[in-house]
């Protein structure tokens, strides 16, 4: 059976290949094991910006069955690499991706895949020795020591790992945060920054989610289609059709022009309960006024408010998506539409924003 599985390994799912590779490792069949690892490596996808790595499981099983679970497949691949090649450069990225895509506060999708994920992390910690650190860490701000900590196996999950620089302690200008480490073990760092900006044109930013706002002037097009009349005769029926003309910041509209706003959303992970708030220019009003579920591709609940249009997304899958709505230019003047804001309702540190846009409206 081992020979049959190895011969037909390209027909196996990535999940099955990882399990088969682990079995070959346990039987000391290094030749077959290493070939399976090479086969799996060609399906690795790396996001250098987010420092994550995952296996491309497209057309691999059914998502509602355990053998179609991305989390379980990645867990077994982590177990395989931890046993065979704990120094593999893709291993930390795989672990981070699995951590980032935890669906709920304390588990992934089920108790089954959660157990496998935690087990794979334990294998990773044991193989890399990260469960037994012995390091001294110093955090300095502008040359002054702000925090010193010793991290060992005894306090690995309990040491004070936060250093906060309060705004009233920071002056204008450049600041340097320096982190030094002495001893044995890896050190992982996250940095969060909150600031209030007075810049005239606000630019877009984001990492794990990104949002890009596109504005278009809708130009009516005379369009007719053939349709059947009451007695079966062929009639020309006029239909509503528009051409989209991209609008750059500083563009001029006429009162009464129709404008379409498209939000192009890029997500690096699978998320839940994400809000997109598009701040509208003061001289414009939404064409639709009834909030609720519309025909948008993301199935988002839409609220049309005085100052913004909000999209509430129940689930946001990894990849690119878009939603759109229409405005009508009404009041003459020069207006700024503040950036579109994206954030997670229950994890506010996950956020992004688009560029600002300035538009002129004339009679």
Structural summary, described in words:
The protein has 363 residues and is α+β, with helices and mostly antiparallel strands. The chain has three domains: 2-128, no CATH class; 134-184; 209-362, Immunoglobulins (Immunoglobulin-like). The protein contains six helices and 21 strands. It is flat.
Task: Write the topology of this structure.
Blueprint: H1 2-7, H2 14-26, H3 30-41, E1 44-47, E2 52-55, H4 70-84, H5 91-100, H6 111-128, E3 134-141, E4 144-152, E5 177-184, E6 209-220, E7 223-228, E8 234-239, E9 242-247, E10 251-254, E11 258-267, E12 271-279, E13 284-286, E14 292-293, E15 301-304, E16 308-316, E17 319-329, E18 333-337, E19 341-344, E20 351-353, E21 357-362
Parallel strand pairs: 10-21
Antiparallel strand pairs: 1-2, 3-4, 3-5, 6-9, 6-11, 7-8, 11-17, 12-16, 12-19, 13-17, 14-15, 15-16, 18-21, 19-20
Helix pairs in contact: 2-3, 2-4, 4-5, 4-6
State the separation between the terminal residues, measured CA to CA.
Answer: 79 Å
Please name the fourth-level CATH homologous superfamily of the largest domain: Immunoglobulins
- Broad CATH class of the largest domain: Mainly Beta
Which structural class best describes the helix and strand composition?
alpha+beta
* Unreliable stretches covering 5 or more consecutive residues: none
**CATH level-two architecture of the largest domain:** Sandwich
Q: Give the amount of beta strand, in percent.
A: 35-45%
> How many distinct helices?
6
Number of strands: 21
CATH fold category name of the largest domain: Immunoglobulin-like
């Amino acid at each position: 059976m081992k020979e049959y599985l190895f011969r037909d390994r390209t027909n196996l799912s990535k999940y099955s290949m990882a399990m088969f590779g682990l079995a070959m490792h346990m039987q000391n069949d290094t030749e077959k094991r290493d070939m399976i690892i090479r086969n799996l490596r060609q399906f690795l996808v790396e996001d250098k910006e987010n420092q994550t790595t995952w296996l491309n499981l497209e057309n691999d099983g059914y998502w509602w069955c355990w053998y179609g679970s991305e989390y379980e497949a990645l867990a077994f691949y982590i177990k395989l690499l931890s046993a065979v090649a704990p120094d593999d450069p893709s291993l930390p990225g795989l672990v981070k991706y699995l951590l980032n895509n935890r669906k709920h506060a304390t588990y992934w999708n089920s108790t089954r895949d959660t157990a496998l994920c935690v087990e794979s992390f334990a294998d990773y910690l044991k193989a890399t020795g990260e469960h037994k650190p012995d390091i001294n860490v110093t955090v300095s701000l502008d040359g002054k020591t702000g925090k010193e900590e010793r991290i060992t196996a005894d306090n690995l999950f309990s040491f004070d790992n936060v250093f906060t620089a309060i705004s009233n302690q920071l002056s204008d200008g450049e600041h340097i945060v320096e982190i030094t480490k002495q001893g044995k073990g890896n050190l992982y760092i996250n940095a969060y920054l909150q600031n209030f900006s007075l810049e005239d044109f606000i630019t877009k930013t984001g990492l794990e989610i990104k949002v890009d706002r596109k504005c278009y002037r809708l130009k009516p097009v005379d369009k007719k289609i053939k349709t059947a009349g009451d007695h079966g005769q062929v009639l020309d029926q006029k239909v509503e059709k528009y051409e989209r003309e991209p609008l750059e910041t500083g563009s001029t509209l006429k009162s009464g022009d129709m404008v379409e706003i498209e939000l192009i959303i890029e997500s690096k992970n699978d998320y839940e309960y994400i809000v997109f708030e598009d701040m509208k220019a003061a001289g414009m009003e939404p064409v639709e006024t009834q909030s609720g579920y519309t025909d948008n591709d993301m199935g988002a609940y839409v609220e049309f408010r005085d100052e913004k249009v909000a999209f509430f997304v129940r689930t946001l899958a990894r990849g690119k998506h878009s939603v759109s709505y229409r405005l009508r230019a009404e009041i003459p003047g020069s207006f700024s539409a503040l950036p579109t804001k994206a954030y997670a309702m229950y994890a506010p540190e996950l956020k992004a924003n688009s560029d600002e846009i300035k538009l002129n409206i004339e009679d």
